[in-house]
Amino acid sequence: MPSVQDISFINVSEGKRATQSSLSKWSHAQEATAATDPDFDRAFAFHTDRQGAPHWTLDLAAVYPIEKIVLRNRRDGFQHRIGTLVVETSLNARDWTIVHSGLTYAKDEVTFPLSGMVTARFVRLRLQEATYLHLSQVDVIARRYDTFGEKVFLARRNDGLGERLNAILNALWLSEIYGCGFRFTWSKRFQDDPLHAIVPVEDMFSAEFIDRYFVPESDVAGNWEIVGPERSYEEIAWRLSDTGMVSAPRVHLSELMKTFIGMDDREGLKRAFARIGFSDHVRAAIDLAYDVEIAPDASALHLRSGDVFFGEYRKLLHYTYKGITLPIAKNIILNQQEKGRCVYIFGQDNEAIAYLSAETSAVDTNTINQRELEGMSRVQKAMYDLVLLSRFRTIVGGSSGFSRQAGWIGGSDVFRPPQIFNADTQHALSVMDLAENKDVYHPLQTAFAYWYAYFYGREKRTPEENIPLLQDARRFDPANELYFFVEAALLMKCEDGPAASDLLSKLMQERHAQDSLTTVFDIFVAHTAGKPNLAEYLPHFEKLAKDGSFHASALMCALARKRKDAPAVQVYNDLCSKASGVAPELKDSVIQCVAAIE
Fold this sequence. Notes:
Blueprint: E1 7-11, E2 18-20, E3 46-47, E4 51-52, E5 55-73, E6 85-90, E7 96-101, E8 109-127, E9 130-131, E10 134-145, E11 152-155, H1 161-178, E12 181-184, H2 201-204, H3 207-213, H4 233-243, E13 245-247, H5 268-275, H6 280-291, E14 299-303, H7 306-310, H8 326-338, E15 343-347, H9 350-360, E16 363-364, H10 370-374, H11 378-390, E17 394-397, H12 401-410, E18 413-415, H13 423-437, H14 443-455, H15 463-476, H16 481-493, H17 497-513, H18 517-525, E19 527-528, E20 531-532, H19 538-546, H20 550-562, H21 566-578, H22 584-595
Parallel strand pairs: 11-12, 11-13, 14-15, 14-17, 15-16, 17-18
Antiparallel strand pairs: 1-10, 2-5, 3-10, 4-9, 5-8, 5-10, 6-7, 6-8, 19-20
């Protein structure tokens, strides 16, 4: 699996036309081009007259990424005359970039390495004094990117539709900024998942777009990706030149790059979206979304739920930021309506959207073009929603690639709930609403809302105040291991180790009976956003393990195995073996689960 393109080097100057600023008495017609003839056998190929700043210019006839420029000096003396040499490149013979300027002491040959970083059609050599300019040969060596024929930015995400399209938009925009190519992969992951709008590549994009830009995942695996803060324009250019292909991020470039051309261009991603060749049926859904009449100064609410509330992601603490619970959504709508805005609701949970619309008079977007929507596939509906969402100046959504992407292609302002309500307010609104509506909502909506209320109040409330919220969350979603773990940690904060250990015992006994014990350990050792799922709670499990809890020791041993921390594995293994009071069958199953962690 290559991490770079196949790269070769070619001399692109051979036989190309050149001109010089003047002719000397030793010159002959068309001699400037002789410097690009490798078989020319004379002490000098060209010779200007003595003049101020003499120069020689080469036209490569096409644009190339220049690897190096090699100059061979006059062969019979006077080699010192190139001492004040300036080397310049240009795309158009009007705007020049200096790639070398300064004293040049070279007897026979001098090389100026550019490593493919400079793209040019024209090369100019000039001196900074009144003298003669004469050389025997000029070679311009260019990089040739053999895999794709050009440097490319890649979009190769394999997660949900929003993040995949974000990467495609970024790759297209970067290809515009850096003046290079674009390619994309399209993973089959989630293709059959009912919680994701992922279809085969030929159903998503036009045959022409696929033929021109699509590449298999195996062809581009392992290459450098733009991640981390404060990447510079120059660093990315270097990586692009060095490898021939760089993976685009899923987040906005302004979050990763210090500066880049067009950073303030709100139209850049809109132009990128227009370049995507969608299949006919996806394009029909997009066109329909552009035809919808919406109220002036309206706001959109993207009610992210789907896999965050109803799938396994609800068990990962980091994903709390992605969802908007019904209590918070209801109050966001009221907040926007108080500002005189009509609110349109988007999302995957049609039942929740219908409820919010009935409660607040917000517009259920499922009722717009309802007949057409009923005949749409899942991906058509997703693209229809995306484009319609992009037409709102104000979008409120969770930490969702989908709402973020709509903001990109529409130039919209995207807000998250914490930008509208602070943590105290979110907690208070959640608790107040749940007291009245906990049995009205879907159980998993209610459970997540209790968790959300805990999460946004945990810093300012005592463990004793927070534990009831976790218990309510468990009551409505007993299959969620995250709630057990956090409640156990809170019990440890209350210095009630026996109750914490009992809760972990209850969890493991229930999952053992359900033949799903491995899930307990999978969730405990999971990593999200670059850190352990339960990072802020791990010290409490560590203490509980050292206090003699078999269940906490087993969990910490699993985490140590995941971290490849052999000394810690031994410590927690010893603690497990010393623990007592655990049913032998459960103990054996737990130890097997721990041993299977890699």
